[in-house]
Amino acid sequence: MFQTLRDSNISAFQVSEFILMGFPGIHSWQHWLSLPLALLYLLVLSANIFILIIINQEVTLHQPMYYFLGILAVVDMGLATTIMPKILAILLFSAKAISLPACFAQMYVIHCFVGMESGIFACMAIDRYVAICQPLRYPSIITESFVVKTTVFMTLRNTLTIIPIPVLAAQRYYCAQNQIEHCLCSNLGVTSLSCDDRTINSIYQLLLAWILMGSDLGLIILSYILILHSVLKLNSAEATSKALSTCTSHLILILFFYTVVVVISITHSAVMTVPIIPVLLNVLHNVIPPALNPMVYALKNKELRQGLYKVLKLDINRN
Length: 319
Description:
Layout: H1 2-8, E1 17-20, H2 34-57, H3 64-93, E2 97-99, H4 100-133, H5 138-141, H6 144-161, H7 164-170, E3 179-180, H8 187-191, H9 199-232, H10 237-269, H11 276-285, H12 288-300, H13 302-318
Helix pairs in contact: 1-4, 2-3, 2-12, 2-13, 3-4, 3-6, 3-12, 4-6, 4-7, 4-9, 4-10, 7-9, 9-10, 10-11, 10-12, 12-13
């Protein structure tokens, strides 16, 4: 799609490629960041693969809640893999050039995965609401069919609504400047180089954020308000503690995810005295949650811990 788009508008582009400069203000020593970022990327892959192995091998985990967690693991690995190989290539080998179609494609995939992660968080909140507030109806509401339908809906929602972002970016007129003070092809970072009006790009991204992620966050907040209201009515302190414990890990990850999204939006709009901050936040936002998600769930969930123990015990026996 992007190659065709480029061919049809080739006269509009005065540059043949973009140059991703990396982290602004620290170009001379940014290569030292390659080691911690590489380790973080390996953690993302290994931890999420481990989660998928545990869910696959442990029959007791073949339940909708863990299916959502498995989908989240796939999305997390996809998001990190979309950006980290290129970032490491920039830091280690100064491979800063990226073609226009590749840049727009990366922009599209990043937005798709971030939207998917937001959507899966919303689905998991609904799962917890039904499990705690309507436990008797849980088996009939949260079924495998429900998981499939919501996943298909979230996939179509994001893949279709995100298309205008790279398409609109490709329509801009890039007259001369092609150096992007960033590690990845963000929509705002790329379109800021255009010589014509990019208002429509900013408006569409803002509307998309409010409609998609805003609706997801609203659904999550509503779900947890209802959960809290239901839990506070429980007579048993033990039952209350157990119900809240099952939601704690989910809330921690959600708060981090959406808080960083808001901070990134503010820092991109503001004139920063330290320009590295929004770039670093943007990179970490695409890597930290994928690294934290499996670890937090494994530590807070008894069934996952038991499954982890069984998988490790099997591996030890094989050796």
